[in-house]
């Protein structure tokens, strides 16, 4: 039984599994990922998800201009039909994002309880928006009116940079002033915690989900962004099961001080470490993430 299979079978105790990950000094987080990838190649059922990158979606909005390049494949954008609302125009005409955003009209009208996504938090709430033009769904994170515009701009900016590597939902626009303060973004389909609680997963993240989370953390490190809010509710997936980090409200730039203290895997040492605790709090097992954090910390202390 290979490593992935033994994880899916529910255990990390197999000798074969522990052997495949044990040599910490020669096995940094990168090698750790490679070990997973290697093992994954050996299993017959490969993922149906394409990891092929796709470059080149540029969008601008009316209130606050946004330019985002999306790299990771995003099914939603290429498959508007799947999200078509009953009564939406049945036309093949392609609309620009500006036209579509304009067609949404007054965004404050969507701020009603029926449109709530998730729970209303201290800082505000996130609402579902559907374009009557294309049927495409979006998420609008609305902040309390006293929230500083500069903080909202900072959050949107971190998210835009993360979205450039396809690990955060694309930001379509934001506003830190006016009638409502918001960030408008692509809507994601599932909370990872809900998937983990499903009968199929039985309170354990799949090896692929864990690997995806590690990849996101690596990309955040590459972008010099410390996500810094390892709450399990801040992980969502798209229709393809691809994991995304949302909520860049606590994010920081990784500076020299952080690099000196934590080494090259700052998100592994901090964000994923927090995430492991949060998942434990939700009774969700994520053994690969736990090992990843240990290896990141070992690398930092070398
Ligand atoms: N892009 C999205 N697509 C679908 N649902 C989303 C999206 N963004 C947020 N949500 C839903 O809204 C919830 C809250 O979002 P988020 O984590 O950004 O805000 P928060 O934690 O309340 O805010 P803050 O951390 O700023 O106080 C998420 O847990 C999720 O259920
Ligand atoms: Mg959050």
Specify the biggest β-sheet: 5 strands, antiparallel
Give the termini separation: 33 Å
The strand count comes to 10
Low-confidence regions: 1-28, 39-71, 74-87
Question: For the record, what is the CATH homologous superfamily label of the domain at 190-300?
Answer: Transferase(Phosphotransferase) domain 1
Overall mean pLDDT score?
A: 78
SS strand fraction: 5-15%
Overall CATH class of the domain at 190-300? Mainly Alpha
| Morphology | globular
Rg of Cα set: 20 Å
Provide the CATH architecture of the domain at 190-300: Orthogonal Bundle
* Structure class: alpha+beta
- Counting DSSP H or I runs of 4 or more residues, the number of helices is 11
For the largest beta sheet, what order do the strands appear in spatially?
1-2-3-5-4
Bound ligands, each once: adenosine-5'-triphosphate, magnesium ion
SSE arrangement, N to C? HHHHHEEEHEEEHHEEEEHHH
Estimate the helix proportion, in percent.
25-40%
Q: What is the name of the CATH topology of the domain at 190-300?
A: Transferase(Phosphotransferase), domain 1
